[in-house]
Design a protein that fits this description.
This protein is of the alpha/beta class and 433 residues long. Helix content is 38%, strand content 13%. It has 15 helices and 13 strands. The protein starts with a helix and ends with a strand.
């Protein structure tokens, strides 16, 4: 253990990052930045080829930093047998839900199984993927110990959840505090040596289960509060009150209130998914997570509610939704990024198209619609001009990117349905949704 800690602390170790997406790629860059040699693993050969050529496939990560990492020795590979070369193996793979809204650990377990034949004494394995409390100890540990190595003595296992916030320039991988829990105290000590070199503050907790629950609490806290304001949005709409005005006023209280904002539904790979990992696990203990499930129900219904507001807005102007030309503004799940995972915009587009509307979209971060697991539209981003705005029967603002010209939109759009409260001043052609 001490020799591994020494190699980690002196940055002599080779760090393996398994999964080179929105979590793994920034983490790789941070390790490379401070002088570690880094080997990236991914099953996507096209992604690996692009990285080795110094190219980026994530908009907010410029190609220059990839090229700098490559020049410093970073390489990507699809050959998981090279896991043996690494002192640290960090799993950054997806943990989605299946069609029954149950946890799908297949990516985590398949990745774990792929490295087991290549493990050796003196390695640390860290899981960063969000999951239910008990996963690291109940699922990963037995698999890793099939190698004949004992966790806590020969091999060290920790859970340290990712906390990336793509598109937020205020926080970087280095400056976001890192939660860490080990299977044993020795595992925690090795994990501290691993992350303490690249993260400004590492916060240790008593176990992997506590670390897993910490990540879930962070995301459940957001999901429940967003569900609350989404429900209040509907109430305020019926009462003729602007929920965004109310939130802005309440946020002036310097204590006891944290502003959360309503929207067209939840998006991204965390908030719409992670709470249901705890809901699923709680059933094992005979418990019902009613707050979580209620918030999930409210948030999941938001796309339908937005479509209803579009229908009503068109009806008030003597027009049916069927045949109407709807220009959707923003199809990424949050502002100023290109990430479309679980984006409510995509579901809203499908709902509108199913009801007979003619759909187009404009998103400066997504120039062409790339087919997704459940959705496919043969569309490219429409440039916003006075002519394209005026040609739409309804301009539906879903993701409020800063690069949109909101004065241009307001001036030339005949009807705007605003799901983000971007337009504060009331106008006859603007409908809040």
């Amino acid at each position: 253990m001490q020799s591994l800690i020494a190699r980690l602390q002196t940055r002599q170790s080779l760090i393996g990052i398994l999964g080179l997406g929105y979590v793994g790629l920034p983490l790789m860059l941070r390790f490379a930045e401070v002088g570690y040699r880094v080997l990236g693993f991914d099953i996507d050969l096209a992604k690996v080829t692009r990285l080795n050529a110094g190219e980026s496939y994530i908009e907010h990560i410029p190609a220059e930093v990839i090229r700098t990492a490559v020049a410093a020795g970073f390489r990507a590979t699809t050959d998981f047998s090279r896991a043996r070369e690494c002192d640290a193996l960090i799993l950054c793979v997806p943990t989605p839900l299946n069609k029954y809204r149950e946890p799908d650990l297949s990516h985590v377990l398949d990745t774990t199984d792929s490295i087991v034949p290549h493990l050796r004494p003196g390695q640390v394995v860290s899981l960063e993927s969000t999951t239910w409390p008990g996963t690291t100890d109940e699922e990963l540990r037995p698999r890793l110990e099939r190698s004949g190595l004992q966790v806590g003595q020969d091999l060290f296992l920790v859970f340290s959840p990712e906390r990336e916030d793509p598109g937020n320039p205020k926080y970087r991988t280095r400056t976001i505090p890192k939660i860490l829990g080990g299977v044993t105290p020795a595992c925690t000590q090795v994990g501290q040596a691993l992350y303490g070199q690249v993260i400004d503050q590492v916060i240790t907790v008593s176990s992997t289960r506590a670390a897993e629950m910490t990540k879930l609490l962070e995301n459940i806290h957001r999901a429940v509060n967003i569900g609350l304001v989404n429900e209040l949005k509907i109430v305020c709409d019926r009462m003729g009150i602007d929920i965004h005005e109310v939130i802005r006023a309440a946020a002036t209280k310097p204590f006891g209130f944290t502003p959360y904002y309503p929207g067209p539904g939840l998006g991204g790979h965390c908030i719409p998914i992670d709470p249901f990992y705890l809901t699923w696990k709680a059933r094992e203990y005979g418990l019902s997570t009613r707050f979580i499930e209620l918030a999930g129900e409210v948030n999941a219904n938001m796309p339908q509610w937005v479509v209803g507001k579009v229908v009503d807005a068109l009806n008030d102007r003597g027009q049916a939704l069927k045949g109407a030309r709807i220009l959707v503004l923003g199809i990424a799940y949050k502002k100023n990024v290109d990430d479309r995972r679980e984006s409510p915009a995509i579901e809203i587009m499908e709902l509108l198209q199913h009801k007979g509307a003619s759909i187009s979209y404009s998103d400066p971060h997504v120039p062409k619609f790339i087919p997704m697991r459940k959705y496919d539209f043969d569309l490219e981003s429409t440039a916003l001009t006075p002519e394209t705005l005026a040609a739409a029967d309804c301009v539906l603002l879903i993701t409020d990117h800063d690069r949109f010209d909101y004065d241009l939109i307001k001036t030339h759009a005949r009807l705007i349905v605003d799901t983000r409260g971007r337009y504060c001043e009331p106008a006859d052609h603007i409908v809040k949704a």
